[in-house]
Amino acid sequence: MISDLAHLHARAPGAPFWFDAVLFGAFLATGVAAGLASLLLVHGMVVRRLGRVAGWTAIALASLLAGFGIYLGRFERLNSWDALTRPLQVLAVAFDPARSPLAHVRPLAVTVLYGGFILLGYLAVVAMLHAGRQLLPAPPPRE
What is the spatial distance between Cα 49 and Cα 125, in angstroms, rounded to a whole number? Predict the structure, then answer.
């Protein structure tokens, strides 16, 4: 969604630029918040079942996979439904960089950069939640 801001200049005439920018921003913020909240739920579930190391490993892997998904969508122009309608093409495109990662710098760079961005965003959320627990008074015990 963040990379969709690149298309803000190619808008249809009619609505003012500021309206489109605010609309894009609202959708972007909602999508990023929902994605980070989903990671938080998955992290909690994995930690409860498999422990802290497994929880952080799952978050790191999910971030990198999301980064690769961004590459597939933005640069290879694949959509989620292509996995059902053209599965062989999706597999070929997805596994081509894995055969020779150093010969495919763009997929690696996009995956690491976007995956790292997602992971940093998640770390910021976890840090804020931790700080909130430390600073806010504990709720009264239930009776």
Answer: 22
- The rounded distance, in Å, linking the Cα atoms of 107 and 125 is 27
CB distance 116 to 76 below 8 Å: no
Predicted pLDDT of residue 35: 93
For the chain, what are the domain ranges? 2-135
Q: Which residue has the higher pLDDT, 66 or 3?
A: 66
Q: How confident is the model at residue 4 (pLDDT cuts 50, 70, 90)?
A: low
Q: Could you tell me which residues come within 8 angstroms of residue 54 by beta carbon, excluding any fewer than 6 positions away?
A: 46, 47
Radius of gyration of the chain (CA): 19
CA distance 43 to 85: 31
Separation between Cα atoms, residue 38 and residue 63, nearest integer Å: 12
The continuous run of DSSP H or E covering 74 comes out as helix 52-74
The alpha-helical segments, DSSP class H, found in the chain are 17-50, 52-74, 82-85, 87-99, 105-135
